[in-house]
Amino acid sequence: MNTLPDMALGAEAGLPASELDAVLDRLGEAALPLTGAVACRIDLPAEIVGPRAICLAAPLSGPLADHMQQMAKARVQPLGSAATLGLSAPALGAARDAANTTLQEVEGTRYRFVQRSIAGPCGLVLGDILLGFDATRTGADEAEQAALHFTALLASLLAERRGKLAMARDMAALGRHAAHLQRRLRKDPLTGLENATSFQAGVRDDLDAGRGAQALVLFDVDHFKDINDLHGHQFGDIYLRAIAGALSSSLPADARIGRIGGDEFAALLRLPSDPEPALASALRRCQAALQGLGESLGKPEIGGVSIGAALFPRQAETYDTLFELADTALYAAKRAGRGAEMLFDPRRHLRFSLRELMRNFSGALAAGEVRPVFHPVVDLATGVCTGYEVLARWQAPGGDMVGPELFSPIFESPVLAEQLTRSMIGQATEWLSRLPQRCRAEGQPLRIGINVTRFDLCNRSFADDLARLLADFGLSWEALVIEVPETVMLGETGGNVFEALRDLRARGAKIALDDFGTGYGSLRHLGTWPIDMLKIDCQFVQGLSARPRDRAVVEAILSMARRFGFRVVAEGIETPGQLSYLRAMGCDAGQGHLISAPLSIEDLASAPAVYPLSGVEA
């Protein structure tokens, strides 16, 4: 039995040849000896054997082959064609049993031709077979019986073949679907970049492959929460997609880029043997593309993107360490004013490492190395000290005392931030209870201002724990001022922060909005949030003498505060000129190094009740 050219039965649709295919080929070759026929033609449609129809024939050429080809074409409706797949059950049953037997002469020789359909399960027609017998040797009944038995054997093999192909097609479809899902699982749906899981796995593989010098670069969108609050989340999504596009277009084509957080992106860059100049050049191009996004989106006032980077393998040889160093450099970039880019420098940046601080800070709290200092708040009309803002200072054994600007990463750790707040409140209230001058001259209690974080206010036990602490030291709620950064008050009324502040205020504490004027969206909160006082950020106070715009801002804040009934405290008074401006404007209170530096616990007992402001005023 021979197969017509380009019609091999073995490997249709990319399927590998199998034992079943080999058996089918051998059966075709055995058709003549098994049936006693002198010629055979088997037509198998594409629906059964694959994407192309197949014809097995013997002989492959000559008058008899041509005659049998014409007979196959002459059938009005070949039972093996696709048209037969829609036959009704009775018709299929008839097709299974039907045989067309004819006597015809070819080149002077009489042949008995038997045509049958190859029927599979449920009457499904799998193909057609045409057998030619020497009419002088084989009778009609003998020919039909031989054709019937061979057709049944062939039908069994073709049914199995059909099932195998169907299974292969299903497996191929499942494979394509799985690959599609896998691609989707690796992609961030908003930006189309790699997601965090895929990016991390890919970077680990790249680093393990040891492909020479590389840099991990982290990108953090400055003030993204404020952007969402001001312009809406829909614009925030547009901005993130624009950032993704800027990174993709400005970084090298072989860079791996991913979105690893809500407003955080990362890239792994391949670098030459002298990596720093190439990295600096890449970051400059990247920063230039990012800085123009606000203008192109019609929001020129939105912030930039801070960038931190670390080098592999020079600075770190594992992904975890490399990420930590890049994250530390990123934090240093934020502290430098945001919108900056920093390559990790161990001499300058280890103090920004949250992991390093976490290793040491909790123990420092327990050892009493983190202590409060007290910055006097003075009535600018009378010079009377109305209270103190409590500030944290860390003095490790044998080291200099440092302020929170040098351990600020701990404010991003819920556990450490709450530990610090409670330690400062505990120490401050204990020392305030010991002061002989716990009240001002007019009988009002001295107040201590405590800086709190979002973590403190979201802790449901914070107010009750504070109440027990005040009771232990015999202090009233009126002795407390809860100072809240402006960015913490950017949520909606009714949230956890709002309810916590309202509860604290209802108990008798005063609520101060700290660093006023530096955040976004605070004006719309002034009429609804529980606020008693505003603290003008020091950057506006320090510009009073030199910048008319800063004077205008301070005047506007004072005017607005009077209408709302808020008390105003000016922070960072450092020169006599600043003090004169503030007193002339009618600012209620102030604090700064011109009046007094922060006082240690030991100096608090001897601190003056009244500060001679006229003596220092210009």
Topology overview:
Blueprint: E1 2-3, H1 19-29, H2 31-35, E2 39-44, H3 46-49, E3 54-58, H4 63-74, H5 89-97, E4 99-106, E5 109-119, E6 125-134, H6 140-186, H7 196-208, E7 214-221, H8 224-231, H9 233-250, E8 256-259, E9 264-270, H10 275-291, H11 293-296, E10 305-312, H12 319-335, E11 341-343, H13 346-349, H14 354-366, E12 370-379, E13 385-395, E14 401-402, H15 414-434, E15 447-451, H16 454-458, H17 462-472, E16 480-485, H18 496-507, E17 510-516, E18 533-536, H19 538-541, H20 548-564, E19 567-570, H21 576-585, E20 589-590, H22 601-604, H23 613-616
Parallel strand pairs: 10-11, 13-15, 15-16, 16-17, 17-18, 18-19, 19-20
Antiparallel strand pairs: 1-3, 2-3, 2-6, 4-5, 5-6, 7-9, 7-10, 8-9, 12-13, 12-20, 13-14
Walk me through the structure.
The chain has 618 residues and is of the alpha/beta class. The chain is 44% helix and 20% strand. The strands form three sheets. An eight-stranded mixed barrel has the order 12-13-15-16-17-18-19-20, surrounded by four helices. Strands 1-3-2-6-5-4 form a six-stranded antiparallel beta sheet. Strand 4 and strand 5 form a beta hairpin. Helix 8 packs across helix 9, helix 9 runs antiparallel to helix 10 (275-291) and helix 14 packs parallel to helix 15 (414-434). The radius of gyration is 43 Å and the shape is rod-shaped. Residues 3-17 and 76-97 have low confidence and may be disordered.
